[in-house]
Amino acid sequence: MQGTLDLLILRTLIFGPRHGQGIARDIHTDSSEELLVDHGSLYPALQRLEARGLIAAEWGVSSNNRKARFYRLTPRGKKALTNELSQWKRMVAAIGRVLNARKTKPV
Amino acid sequence: MRRKRDSRDFDAEIQSHLAHETETLLNEGVPPADAANVARRAFGNVTLARERFYESVHWVWFDQLRQDLRYAIRVLCKSPLFASVAVVSLALGIGANVALFNIVHKLLLQALPYRDAERLVYVTEFWPHEPIMPGPPSPDFANWRAKSKLADGIAAYGGGADALNLTSRGEPERLQGTMVTANLLELLGTRMALGRNFTADEDRPGGPAAVILGYRLWQSKFEASPYVIGKTIRLNGIPRTIVGVLPSGFVFPDNNFRDQLLVPMALAADQHWHDDLNFRLLRVLAKLKPEVAPAALKDEFSAILRSTAQEEPPQMVTMRKDMEVRMTPLRDWLTGGVRQMILILQATVGLLLAIACLNIAGLQAARATNRQREMCLRAAVGAGRTRLLKQLLTESVLLGLLGGALGVGLAFWSMAWLRAFLPANLHLVDGIRMNGPVLMFAVGTAVFAAILSGLAPAMAASRTHLHDAMKEGQSPGQGKQRLQAALVIAEIAMTMVLLAGSGLFIKRFVQLASADPGFRPEGVLTMRVALPANSYGNDRSRIGFYTRLVERARTIPGVSSAAVAGGLPVIGARSRGGLSIQGEPDVPAGGRPTITIAGITSDYFQTLGIPILRGRGFALADESGPQVAIVNEAFAAKFFPGQDALGKRIEVGSREGQWREIVGIAGTVKQQERRPPDPYMIYSPLRYFVEPEAFLVLKSPGMPPEQLTTAAVAAVHAIDPDLPLYDVASMRERLGSAIAAPRASMTLMAIFAGLGLILSMAGVFGVTSYLVNRRRREIGIRIALGATKGRVARMVLGRGLRLAGVGIAIGVGASMGFNRALGSVIEGIQTDDWATLSAAAGAFALATAAACVFPARRAAKADPMTALRSE
Prior knowledge:
- The complex is a heterodimer of chains A (107) and B (871).
- With 107 residues, chain A is of the alpha+beta class.
- Chain A has helices at 4-13, 20-30, 39-51, 75-104, and strands spanning 18-19, 55-61, 67-73.
- Helix content of chain B is 52%, strand content 15%.
C-alpha cells in the first residue's frame, strides 16, 4: 500500500536517528519478523521522505565504527507522523468493522 | 535549499548498508563465506536502486533530451543530403507561411493603429439599385453630428478638392491633399509628430488657412525641419500656415486618400438642405459609444436621415426616399479588397507546407527502413519504444527548428518582395516587419511541421521486431512500404489541388490580359492637369486653357494627335449624371440611372484608337452648335435595345432641358472593374461638359511615349507656369496596372504551385530511388533469370506512375471542391474547368514520369552479380 512503508519508516525514527540498514532491521524485528522489507526498495522511500522534508539525513559513525548515513525525524515529520498514525488507526478500525460486519448482521 | 546528492554519495550509502548488514548477519551466526551474498540478496537489485535514485534527483528527460539532441545532430550530419533537402523544403514551407501570416496578422488580427479602432465604423449611404455609393452629403453629416446619441464622435474627410498644387517651393508640384474635419485626428487618437491638430476656428469658412504636413512630405520637401511650424506655403495659390506634422507611422483611415497634406474641411455651420443643392459629398467615419452595436447606430442614423425630409427640396425627397445607411467596420473598409485573396494564399501556403511535411515524412520512412538495425540494436540494449520514439522525434524537431530559422530568414527577406504584390494604396502594410506574435507563430509552425512530418515514420520505425532485424537484407516490411506509398499519394493529391487552383488563376489572368481593351494603347501618353478654382473660376477660362493646351500639344514633334478629356479608358471618368431619354415617361430624379459622362475634345477617339461604330465623331462644329453626344455601344444596347440609338435625344445631369442628340456610337472600352459592371458611357464635346480636372492625351506613333513627358510639361508651363502635370503614365502602364491584382495573385499562386510541384517531384524521386535501392537484390535475380532491362525499367516506372495515378485521381476530386470554394469568392473563376484540370493532371503525370526515369534507368542498369553480392 502506497505510504505504508513511509509510515513505518517515520514510526521507526521516533526512537532516534537510524541509518538505512538499521531501519530495515528495525521494521523486520518490530513486526515480530512478519514484515520483510526488500532493503533496496527502502531507499527510494527514504529519498522521497527526505525530499518532502519529513526526515533529514547526515553522515555519521555507527556503533560499530563504520560510516553511515543517519536519518532523523524533522518537526514536520513528527507532525506528519501523528496525522498519518491517527488516520491509519481510523482506517484500520474501519476496515476491521467492515470485515467483522457479516457476523452480527442477519443475512 | 537542499543540497542535491550526487550518485557517489548514494553508492557510499549502499556500500555502508551492505557492510552493516554483513556484520549483523555475522553476529547472527551466518557463515562468513555467505554473509556478503545474503546481505546483497536482502538488498535486492542494486542497479535498479541506483537508477531509481538517479531518476529521483535528475531531470532525466532533460538528460535524455541532451543525449537525443547530440545523437540527432550526429545522425543528420551523417546524411547531409537528406538533412539539407529536409531543411530547405521545410524552410520554404515555413517561410511562405510566416510571411503570409505576417500580413494576415497585420491586416486582420492586430489592432489597427487608431485609438479604440474596433469602435470605428465607416458610414455610407446608398441606393439599393445603384452601383455607386455617393458619400453622405454634408447636411446628413451635420445632422448626425448634431443629433446622434449613440456615436462617440463623427468626423468627415474628402469632399472634393483633393488636388492641391504646391507652387511656392520651386517647380510647381501636384500634391494629394485631403480635407478633414478638425476632429478626425482626435477621433483616431493621432499624436502629432510636431505642432498641433486644427483648431475649431480653422475648421470654419473664412477661418485662418491652415495645413498639416504628412510625415513623408515633411521629410522630402521640408528637409524634416522642426522650424516648419508657423511657416506659410502656397497651395492652389492660397497661402496656408503649417500648424502640424503627422507622425511617421500614420496611416490615413481610407486607402483611397493620401495623407501628404491635410487641410481643414471648413464646412459651413449652417448645413441645412438648400434649394440650390449646394452640398458636398463626404466620407464619414463614426466612433460607436462603448457597448453600442453598429446596427443600432445604423438605425439611429437612418432615423435622423428620414427626420430631415421636410427640410429637403422636393426633388431631393423623392431621390432620397429609399436611401439606406450602411456601417462598415473600419477594418473591413480598409482590408475588404484583399482579405479573401490573402486568406486563399494563406490556405495555399498551408497546403505547400503540408506537401513539404509529407515529402519529409516519405524520406524519413524510407530512411527508417535503413535504420531498422540501429533501432533494433537500441531496443536490444534496453531502449523502450517511447524512448526510440522520443529520439526520432527529436531528430524531426531539430530539422523543424533549423527549417523554421531558415524560413523566418526567408520570410524576413521576402517581405518587401511580397509587399509589391499587394495593392500600392494598402498603406497598412507599408513598412511591415516581423514581430513577437509572428515569431511565435513561426516557432509553433516549425514544431507542428516537425511533428507532422516525423510522427508517422517514427511510429513505424520504433515498432521493432528484434528477430526480423537479425535477418539481414530482407526487403522492407509491407507496412512500411504502404506508409511510404500513402505519403507519396497524399503529397501528389495535394500538389494536384495546388496546380489546378493556380491553373484557374493563370487562366483568369490570361483571359483578362488578352481581352480586347477596345482601344489602341500603343504610343499613347497621358497625364493629368488640375485647374485651381481661384485662377480658373468658370467654364470659360477652363475651356480657354484646354483649347490652348490641345493646340500646343499637337505641335510637339512626334505627336500625331492630341486631346483633352475628362476621362480615360481603364481609369474612367469622375462625373456621373442622372439619365433621361426624350419620349420616355419622366422618371423622378432619384429613380434615374446615373451614367458616367466625360467631356472630350474632337480628336479623342482618334488619339486613343477607339472606333466609331456608327454615326460620326465630334466635329469642330459641335463646339458651338446644338448639343450632341456620343454614347458607347454598351449604352446603346442597354437603353435602346432593338432600336437605333442614333438620332435619339438624351439629357444627362440635372441641367434641365438640355437635350443632346446622339450623333455617334463608339466602341466600348475596358473600364475598371465594378460590381455590378458599369460599362455605360456618354461623351460630350468638352465645351458642354468641362471640369476643373482633365487628362492630356498624346499619341506618338513609332516612339516610346515616355519621351514626350518633358515636351508636354513645357507645353503646359508655356500657358501657365504655376500648373503642375501629374500622374504621367502611358496607356500601356495603365492597362497593366488595371490587371495588377489578378496578375499578382496569379503570380503568387503559380510560384507556390511550382514549389509544391518541385517538392512532390523530389518526393516521388526519393521514394522511387530508395525502393530501387532496397530491391536491388530482387532486381538482380530478375535480370539473372532473364528479365530484360526494358521490363525492369517499366516495372519501376509503372510503380511510380501507379502512385501518381492514384494521387492525381484523389487530387482531381479534391480540386473540384477547392475550386468551387475559390469560385465562390474570386470573380471570374470558372469552377468546373475540366480543361485546366486535365491539363494540370497531364502535366503532373509527365512530371512524375520524369521523376521516375532516373531511378528506373538505374534499376535497368543493375548488374545482377554485384546486386547479388552486395548483400
